[in-house]
Structure formats: structure tokens, C-alpha cells
Amino acid sequence: MTETPPFSGSLTRRRFLAAASAALLPAPAFAQAMGEGNVDIAIVGGGAAGIAAARKVADAKRSYVLLEAGPKLGGRARTLNVFGQNVDLGASGFARGDGTLAESAQAAGQGLVALPSGRRLFDGRREAHESGYDAFAAALGKARRDLLVAADSGKDPAAATILAAASGAPATVSGWSATAAAFLGPMSCGRPLASLSALDLALRDAPPDDTTGPAGMGALMEALGAWLNVQTDAPVTQITNAGRLHMLTVRNQRTPIRARAIILAVPAPVIAAGAIRFNPALPPRFANAFRAIPAGALEQVAFLLPGNPLGLEPNETVLARVGADGKVPPALLRGRINGSDVHVLTFADAQAREIAEKGETAALALVRTYLGATFGIAGDTVKEVSASRWTSDPLFRGALAAASPGQGAQRRVFADPLQNRIFLAGDYVDTSGWGTLTAAWSAGEAAATRALRLVGDGPA
Fold first, then answer.
1. Element (H, E) at 264
2. Class of residue 230 by CB neighbours under 10 A (exposed 0-12, middle 13-18, buried 19+)
3. 401 neighbors 240 (Cβ within 8 angstroms)
């Protein structure tokens, strides 16, 4: 009697019993049972990219498992109940017309809410005049054009060098040029322009977020992954190339998972830090590419600001003009979350790292200082805060990954498969939309398409 091949379409007695038992098991037990054996595709990482990939694989009727190292899905899209409101302390929206995330949400019966377009600008503790809006738009447009000119020249210096040379002054000079520079660098990438590749910034063309979920983006991501075959608290520690199969070692799980293809959807900084071992080791060009795009630091702080002293509409975003003295670091304000008194400030770079290291104590001091210096709001108005700590979380190790000077072309490496059977997915893969939720979702779907092509058509 010949043995049935492990990926045959036939239904063996062992498979029949496993399938029959699965129907009687609760979801976590079913995920565990499926994980202890062969699957067509293993997806590592339960953020937007991993959820998108798993949904596509499930729709194709292939066997799979989605392995998430943390306690729940969503990645850096995380919704918390803060001061009685659902608040995103991570990704808070996405561009509806860019990618298929909105279509997937609507197909799953999930509602969507429009976010206000544009940003409110404040100058000297009050909203900027129309001339201020014009000056900021002109400064931002000029900065982007200057970066594109540098990219076309074939050179890839630090972005700060390009902007300083174009303006005839350091990129930190006061005024709307400095505000535009802060918006492009620290507030978008969590790092100063002096550490960012001009080419990488020039290639980035991400539309602004204009849509969110009614209960928050984290809640939306969890809802989109609710019916998937998921193992949470299942960190993958090693991936071994075994020829026609890859073996995934999961912490505290004795039996490795064997997969014909792998979608690796964990944050780039986690891979760069060596949190997942590869056997054989990562090829040098992949290892170098991951090192070339270090993570920035962005942390968000939620707080109550009663009485709407800034006169904001619900969910408006506020950017204040950078001061001439440079004493107050730039920050981005999301005001009146869902029409409430809850506001969220995003801090970058050094201030974000301080929050990640010291927690709410440092966050409260930074919020009070910023509100007082920027808007003239008394410090004791804010009594309590709730802060993210992405930079110190070993499952994330920072915010979005941006290329260092001279390394802007390295991002293209991530389009290639690793060891022929591992497909990379995440917000860092896309050369133009990197750092966005829609880019992560689209990358997950693209990786799933390639993995499905590898394992072939038909049921598992």
C-alpha cells in the first residue's frame, strides 16, 4: 500500500478525523490543532499585511495558519478604550482610494467613517491666516520637488542636505519651511532629515489618510481577522529551509509547523534585530537591506482637553508652526476624537524615545509643555495621559522604517522572494506608499498571490 503524499487532495482517514474533530473545537484549539502539522502557507505576523494575506489564502481554499506573536491581531493598529472613548494609539486611518482595504472592509460588512481632509495650521497660538496656509503648501511642495530633482540626479544624500542647499539655509530655520521639513522628516518618519535618504523620501507618494473605522482602526483590523485560523501568543523563533518545505519553530510548541510557502509579515525592525533566526542565514543582500531601513520613533499620547479651547471639529489634525527658538519640538495633534474631549499628540524622535523609556510620566510632561508653549494652554489642564510605547516593544521595535542616506534603492530588494519560498509583506515593502496601512494591506495581498501561485491551484 502506497503512502498518500502529504499535500494530496485525497481525504485520508487521518485527515477525516482531524477535520471532524476540528468542527467540535473552539477557535483557539482548532488553530493549535491545525498548526501542529503541514499547511500550504504559513503567515507570520498578524498586522494588516498578515491579515490581508490570510484572508486571500483562505478565500483560495488553501490550508494555512496565521501566527501572531502577541495576544491579538492588528499590529501597530491598536484601539484602546481611553477616558471612555475608543482611541487609536497607532495607525488611525488609511487612504480609501489607495488599495483594496476599503473594499475588503465593506465586503466583510464593516462600516467606514470619513476623516476631515487636510490639516489645520496654527501660528502663534491661533489658526494661521490664509497666507500661512499658502506659505506652508508652497514650502512643502518645494521641498518635495527638490527631493525629486536630487533623486533624478542619481545621488542619494541626506534629505537635510538637499533642503538646506535649496533654501540657502539650514533646514531647521524658523518659518513654514522649517515646519514643512519637520512634517516630512520627524513627524512622518520619526527621524531627523539628516538621517533620511533623499531618494527614499522622493519616491514616497502616499496620499493622506481620509478614512477610518467607526470603532477605530485597531478594532477594524481585529474584525477583519476574526474568522481566520489564528494562533496568538505564538512567536516564531526560527525558519529552516528543508528543501520543498520550510519548518517554522514556534516558542513553547514542540512540533514545528511545515509549510510549502511562508508569508513573512512582521515589522522590518524585528527582522533586522535577529528576533527570528534563519537556517541558512539571511543572504547578505537581504540582511543589508533590512539594516539600511532603520525604524524611526513615533509615540502617541492621549489626554482630555475639556471645553474645546482650540475650536476644532471632530477628528481634525492640527500642525503648529515650528518656533524660531527650536525649544519646543514639533508634534502632530489629533483633536476631539469622535467629537469627544479626548485628544492625541504624536511625538517623534528623541521625545518619542523618552516616552517609550519612561512611560506616562514623561508623556504627561511633554504634553503640558507642548500645549503651553504652542497654544497657551495651562499645564494643569491635563491631569492624566495614556501613551503608546512602540519603540520599546520587542514585537515592533519602533515605527515605520525609512532608508538611511545612500540606501534609498535598498527597498527594492524586498520585492524578491527569500529562499524561493518566503515572501515579504509589510508597510516597508512598497517603494512609494511605504509606512502606510494601505501599503501594508496591499503588500499582504500581493505576497499571498505569489505564495498561492507557488503552491498551485485547487484545494489543499
1. strand 257-264
2. buried
3. no
Amino acid in the structure at residue 193: L
Domain boundaries, the chain: 25-75+217-294+402-455, 79-98+112-118+295-392, 128-203
**Is there a contact between 155 and 148 (Cβ–Cβ < 8 Å)?**
no
pLDDT at residue 193 is higher than 70: yes
Mean pLDDT of 396-422: 96
Under 8 Å between Cβ of 221 and 48: yes
Check: CATH 3.50.50.60 for 25-75+217-294+402-455? yes
pTM assigned to the model = 0.90
Helices 159-167/176-184 angle, 10° precision: 160
Within a 10 A sphere around the Cβ of 222, how many other Cβ atoms?
20
| Three-state DSSP state, 420 | coil
Give 159's Cβ-side CA count (13 Å radius): 33
Residue 387 per-residue DSSP state: E
Backbone angles phi, psi at 189, to 5 degrees: -115, -10
pLDDT value of position 432: 93
Query: Are 429 and 443 spatial neighbours (Cβ–Cβ below 8 Å)?
Result: yes
Q: Is the pLDDT of residue 22 over 70?
A: no
> Which grid coordinates are listed for 35?
498548526
CA–CA–CA angle 87, 300, 204 (5° rounding): 105
Dihedral Cα 397, 400, 403, 409, nearest 10 deg: 120
d(CA 345, CA 111) in angstroms, rounded, equals 26
Does 30 score more than 80 pLDDT?
Answer: no
Using omega within 30 degrees of 0 as the cis cutoff, is the peptide bond preceding 207 cis? no
Average confidence (pLDDT) over 252-279: 96
Candidates 320, 374, 325, 329; CA nearest to 352 is: 329
* 3-state secondary structure at position 247: strand
Terminal-residue alpha carbon distance, the chain: 22
Burial of 130 (0-12, 13-18, 19+ CB in 10 A): exposed
Can you tell me which residue has the cell 495650521?
121
